[in-house]
Amino acid sequence: MDFIKKNIDDIKEQIKKTSKKIGEDANKVTLVAITKTIPYKIMIETNKLGINDLGENKVQELCKKHPEVEKENSKVKWHFVGHLQTNKVKNIIDKVDLIHSVDSYKLALEIDKRAKQINKIMDILVQVNLAKEESKFGISIEECDDLINLISKLQNIKVTGLMTIAPYSNNPEDSRKYFRKLKKLSIDIEAKNYDNVYMNNLSMGMSGDFVVAIEEGANIIRIGTALFGKR
Ligand SMILES: *Cc1c(COP(=O)(O)O)cnc(C)c1O
Q1: Which of 28, 31, 37, 163 could form a disulfide with 125 if both were Cys (CB 3.0 to 4.6 A apart)?
Q2: Cα 163 vs. chain centroid, distance in angstroms?
Q3: How far apart are CA 26 and CA 161, in angstroms?
Q4: Angle at Cα 221 formed by Cα 29 and Cα 228, nearest 5°?
Q5: Tens digits of per-residue pLDDT, 84-95?
């Protein structure tokens, strides 16, 4: 696992440098290891190397690996970052700490219902599709405010911020305008002072563009390839 340790050190160094550059505390940035396709044993090793936040994008895969990792360390924080079908909410509601990918009222209603059944307040992010890419999930910037207003009335859901995936590009600078838009949107929504809505989290930036994301205000970065290598 030496290469993972080296990758963690490298990424942490970049987080530190970037945070310093923009005058922010590096400890405010949470590095979520995106562990899709990664065996649970490597997830446990990664956790032992100090990464406490693990993210998955498929319900079935999360449900398979979750108990194995929990046996080792029940304090791991689980993030769900992929598209979530309404009928699968019940499978993960008791397992995850933050759902990054809420993009419809129907999904929010189901999360609220299932969270209520187990006496949980589920923290979520609203996923915004800033580039209006057909292939990507997330709601448009125009619909975001209405959706959050509706969700704010649900008792067992807490909106803690926004998430986006920038369109794929080889040049991280291409992502900057999208990250800037998401930051601005979070400020606009914060100003509305909705109940149960806190714009504390901006989940943006992946292996290719996390430095730019931090420069633009990300405090959650989702990293797969740069930690584990190409999938
Ligand atoms: C796979 C994935 C990531 C990580 O992507 P890398 O480029 O491998 O770092 C981040 N966010 C989401 C939603 C993903 O599905």
Answers
A1: 163
A2: 6
A3: 19
A4: 120
A5: 999 999 999 999
Report the chain's C-alpha Rg in angstroms: 17
**pTM more than 0.70:** yes
Tell me the pLDDT tens digit for each residue of 89-120.
Answer: 999 999 999 999 999 999 999 999 999 999 99
Ligand 1 neighbourhood includes 222 CB (under 6 angstroms): yes
* Parallel/antiparallel/unpaired status of strands 30-34 and 220-223: parallel
Helix H segments across 118-151? Answer: 141-151
Is residue 34 in contact with ligand 1, taking CB distance under 6 Å? Answer: yes
Tokens standing for residue 50: 């100090």
Q: Which residue has the tokens 């509601």?
A: 93
CA distance linking residue 71 with residue 94, whole number of Å? 15
With a 6 Å cutoff on the Cβ, whether 221 touches ligand 1 is no
Q: Tell me, in angstroms, the distance from the centre of ligand 1 to residue 223's CA.
A: 6
Is the Cβ atom of 84 under 6 angstroms away from ligand 1? no
Is residue 77 within 6 Å of ligand 1 at its C-beta?
A: no
CA of 34 to the centre of ligand 1 (A): 6
Size of the chain in residues: 231
Measured from the CB, is residue 207 less than 6 Å from ligand 1?
A: yes
